Amino acid sequence: MKEDKRKTKNVSELRKRAEDKIQGKTDEQDPSIKDARILIHELQVHQIELEMQNEELLRVQKELEDSRDKYSDLYDFSPVGYFSFDNNGLILETNLTGAKILGVERNSLINKPLSLFISSGSKEVFYLHLRQVFSTGVRHTCELNFFDNKGVELWVQLISLLICGNCRTSMIDITDRKKAEESIKNALVYTESIVDTIREPLVLLDSHKRFISANFSFYQTFNISIEDARGRSLYELGNGQWNIPSLRKSLWKINSNNFKLQDFEITQVFPNIGRKVMLLNASRLKLAGTDMILLAIEDITVRRQLEEMFLENESLIRVNKARTDFLMIMSHELRTPLTSVIAYSILLKEKKTGELNEKQMLFVDTILKSSKHLLDLINDFLELAKIEAGKMEMFFEEISIPDLINDILEIIRETAIQHNVILKKEFNQEMLSINADRRSLRQILFNLISNSIKFSKNEGGVITISTKKENDMVRISVADNGIGIRNEDLPKLFQKFEQLDSGISRKYEGTGLGLAITKQLVEMHGGKIWVESKYGEGSNFIFLLPIGGKK
Description:
- The protein has helices at residues 2-23, 33-76, 96-102, 106-109, 123-136, 175-195, 216-221, 226-229, 237-240, 245-257, 301-349, 358-388, 401-418, 438-454, 502-507, 514-524, and strands at residues 81-85, 91-94, 140-147, 153-163, 166-173, 202-206, 211-214, 261-270, 274-287, 290-299, 396-400, 421-426, 433-437, 461-470, 473-480, 528-534, 538-546.
- It is of the alpha+beta class.
- Strands 2-1-5-4-3 form a 5-stranded antiparallel beta sheet, sandwiched between helices. The chain has a 5-stranded antiparallel beta sheet with strand order 7-6-10-9-8, sandwiched between helices.
- Strand 8 and strand 9 form a beta hairpin.
- The radius of gyration is 57 Å and the shape is rod-shaped.
């Protein structure tokens, strides 16, 4: 460094002496040749240094120009529009992209307010944005609705920062994004409208099992309002009614290892809607980078009840069939020897084998009466067993109703006389014949008339059998003025083995099968039967049958 200072000092002295000589102001002698050579060398060195510095300056200048051109191109042709605004929203500067977004030449935008392009609904948003930037100096963002120079609607996003006293803003065209969002929104509305038509409840949960949304069926089925569900955990809904340990465990598996919940059955008692049996299906979804769980709930309560009823009914059918088969076998085995007992009793009563004293005749009458009663019971059992087993064969033919009723009255007249009962008939001349099974129709009428005679009053009474046409049906009624039936006993009247009153049962013999068989025979014809009765005044048994036979 000392050497450099010395050389600089010598050069300065030589330069000064040279200048003094040139100006004629020096008192010294001409410099020596040695000094002149030193001066020349120094001048040459400086000249070379200046040339090198000039070359470096030219190189740097070119690099600066290239860099300026490069960054100018980046600025102008950036996909983002750049603007500078004053605090009134006047455009101080913009790039080519910003001018292109607005559809205007760049030079014509300078000192023009941006509000010329902003829709009326977004102008206040822009001015609020400016005030925030100038007042806080920090970065702010907003979205504006624009109309370009050709009136085409577009959406832009402004990101602004205060730099050197001006608002420097980048403008991004988000029209496509807004259209996509609108399309997605419309698609969601459309999808939700479809989802709301699905009968099964659907629930969308976040990864923490918090409620996001559900379809209408969920709110309706479980009596939950949208306000009560929004943002809450599934396990909190309805005072914790969904806080089911097995469900928590299964939903945890979905998040942990992408497990899918399939046909998971749970039973829960809900406070407002009672016991529900549900089939759950759930899987993990990823929407917009967010993990979600779609839970589908199928209410199978009725299905399970029907299945239980079906199984129970199947069991009852099996038991009933076993009982019917047993009755058929036992009735057959009993009827064969019983027929012999009745036959021998008749022979004894008719004294075919010899005379009987009074006491023996009483015993024979008792045996005969009891045997016939037992045979009637066995026949009822067999009839019922056949009907229930589906083995009852019916042969439909045209039958004269007056003739059939007259035949039955002739058979039963002796019994009526014994009970002081008068039998009357009222035939409608329009209703003379019907297409039916003769044996079944005979049994229906015989059962009803016998029943009326059995439950007549002690002093006797009147039984009226009447027929009447009603559209395509025949109406037949058996009315009496007997003891009648209490209202509370009416529902039990046509049930098997049902006797209305234990006291009556002791007085009036029977198994309670007659009316049950009668009802089934009527229904096998495609008809219906009912009773109208007033206790103490009598009963009227009415049944309808299709005139043309069962349809």
